[in-house]
Amino acid sequence: MPLINIHLNDIDKKRLKNYIERHTDKAMSDFVRKTITEKIKIEESISKIEPLKTVEIPDYIPKEKYVIFVNGAVLAVGNNPSDLAEIAIQKFPNFPFIIKYNGPKKKPIEYFYMGLTEFHG
Predict the structure, then answer these.
(1) Does 5 fall in a domain?
(2) Does the residue 16 lie in any domain?
(3) DSSP secondary-structure letter at 10?
(4) Within 13 A of 104's CA, how many CA atoms are on the CB side?
(5) Which site from 4, 13, 66, 72 is most exposed, i.e. has the minimal number of CB atoms within 10 Å?
(6) Stretches in the chain below the pLDDT threshold 70
(7) Is 98 helix (H, G, I), strand (E, B) or coil?
(8) Is residue 27 part of a domain?
(9) What is the pTM of this model?
(10) Are the C-beta atoms of residues 17 and 28 closer than 8 Å to each other?
(11) Does the residue 116 lie in any domain?
(12) Judgement on whether residues 15 and 43 belong to the same structural domain of the protein
């Protein structure tokens, strides 16, 4: 069994100890061990979710707008992706979502880097 060191400041230790004493009949180490085990199980189950299938933007979505899909269904339409992501997280925090732009594809930005050993003026 691997050994895990978890460091908490004194205030958080006291708060955790008080919580455990009030809500469970377990020792602090058992509670932390069980909590970590549950978190690992959740992470493993989330990683097993199949990748999202590609979704097509319906014809009724206005041009030059962003659209967000949750489980393949249109959730919202808006002007910027951050507002749409906020809506999706508030309504469906545990569901995967896709944001697409209904318009011409934008060119990727090209970068050019140059390293000079001496300053040239």
Answers:
(1) no
(2) yes
(3) H
(4) 3
(5) 4
(6) 1-3, 46-53, 113-121
(7) strand
(8) yes
(9) 0.47
(10) yes
(11) no
(12) yes
Q: How far is it, in rounded angstroms, from Cα 42 to Cα 85?
A: 22
| Residues 13, 32, 48: CA angle, nearest 5 degrees | 135
Q: Which two tokens stand for residue 23?
A: 């809500």
Residues 43 and 71 in one domain: no
Measured between its terminal Cα atoms, the distance across the chain in Å is 62
**13-38: per-residue pLDDT in tens?**
888 888 888 888 888 888 888 888 88
Query: What residues contact residue 61 under an 8 Å CB cut-off, 6+ apart?
Result: 67, 74, 77, 102
100: CB partners within 8 A, 6+ apart: 55, 57, 66, 67, 69
- Residue 20 lies in domain: 10-47
Count of domains forming the chain: 2
